[in-house]
Amino acid sequence: MKKYDCVTTISYPKKGAMGKTGNWRVFIPILDKSKCVKCLRCWIFCPEATIIRNKDNTVDIDYDYCKGCGICANVCKVKAIKMEREGKRK
Amino acid sequence: MTSVMIDTGNYIAAKAAVMCKPDVVAAYPITPQTTLVEGIANYVESGEFKGDYICVESEHSAMAACIGASSTGVRTFTGTSSHGLLLMHEMLHWAALARLPIVMCNINRVIGPGWNIWSDENDSISQRDTGWLQFYCSSNQEIFDTIIQSFKIAEHAKVSLPIMISYNAFILSHTSMPVHVPDQKDIDAFLPKRIPQWKLDVDNPITFGNIILPHEYEKVRKDMQKSQEYTKKLIPEIAREWKKKFGRFHGDLLEYYKCDGAEFILLSMGAIGAESKVAIDNLRKEGFKVGLARVRTFRPFPQEEILKLSKKADLIAIDRNISVGMEGALFTEIKGSLYGKSDAKVHGFIAGLGGKDVTFGDIEKMCKKAIDGKTKDHQVWFGLEEG
Prior knowledge:
The complex is a heterodimer of chains A (about 90) and B (about 375).
Chain A: E1 10-11, E2 27-31, H1 41-45, E3 51-53, E4 59-61, H2 71-75, E5 81-85
Chain B: E1 2-8, H1 9-19, E2 24-27, H2 34-46, E3 52-55, H3 59-71, E4 76-81, H4 82-87, H5 89-97, E5 103-108, H6 122-125, E6 133-136, H7 140-154, E7 163-168, E8 176-182, H8 184-190, E9 207-208, H9 214-246, E10 254-257, E11 264-268, H10 270-285, E12 290-295, E13 297-299, H11 303-310, E14 314-319, H12 329-338, E15 346-350, H13 360-371, E16 380-381
Parallel strand pairs in B: 2-3, 2-4, 4-5, 5-7, 6-7, 11-12, 11-14, 14-15, 15-16
Antiparallel strand pairs in B: 1-8, 6-13, 10-12
Helix pairs in contact in B: 1-2, 1-7, 3-5, 7-9, 10-13, 11-12
């Protein structure tokens, strides 16, 4: 990385520049793969790019960086994603 | 070759700014700054100013536009005054913390109410903690020279901070004086194009002003302090380089006048600083051993130089501002600079608020009052207190 003569607040974009932001989460999205119809709406709408699209268009969730906003659950047409309070998960 | 231009402080500032070839000027007019931005608009019309002139809807937007432009690595200039400066306040902090070398003229004007357009330093003094360097000018020539030097100081890799150049409403902004204007090629040689250390660039994306954690934030503030401290060396160096090339010198952080053998040294800023020279001449003729140290830079504050002066003389400060509930800012900061290191007395006066005229005669009276020990350890409101 380039060295500067003074200290300022710039950063180069990289995965996890702010640390593992998944620990900010209060609600966690739980995906029921048996209900998923591979429409990819969750993948399109996730503001943090934490829905991982697999080659066969199934999806997984990157819990290291998912902040639990719930947009994926909201946009899912078949209710394959539900939000649960963190810590209650078995 | 230099030419001589006879014009007002604002038109001289416009000329200096255009000769620095800024890529972007974004400004909103306000009395008494209006003719400064009109001056630049005239240079757009004549083709002499080739940068982008952004007309904005407020001063907050003017500073925001300068911040955006400066982030792309280009040179930016703006000007404002009084309530306009106050509307910029949030963005002033942003410009300094983002380390953007924006140069701005602020024409010192009263804050209302009561509505008043005359000279008073409370607008810029109330912005002293924003991280900007602050220069105070005492003549149109000094305005011209300081603007050009300021870009060089602000854009220095070890500084990267914005600079505010203040001068008095009407007393300088609307008063014509002859000013020596160097050739454009000589200014280009003195002030090369800005080389940004980083910039907003779509081909090389960087996140600007992102979240940082507490221990990192503290380092950002400490580095701003380090850079301001560094300018205490750099400002005199650049002032002397200017002197060598163009033959003019207005002082380093302070301008000394007849300080040899002085038992009292007067500290004042801006136009009162220029007027003080006449007062010092008269007092010297009467046999009073008084000298002048005109404060050119309020930030960085010349603590070391003032401490040095206090070893030889007692000090007299004139403030054209008041931090209500405390005292004039210059008085406070001079005393702070001496604390525990000097036994010199500091005599303080408040004068010229609301644009009230401060003549050399007034300054002589203040000095005599201090010499006679009549200030009794509190800051005297000149003309409002008996005795």
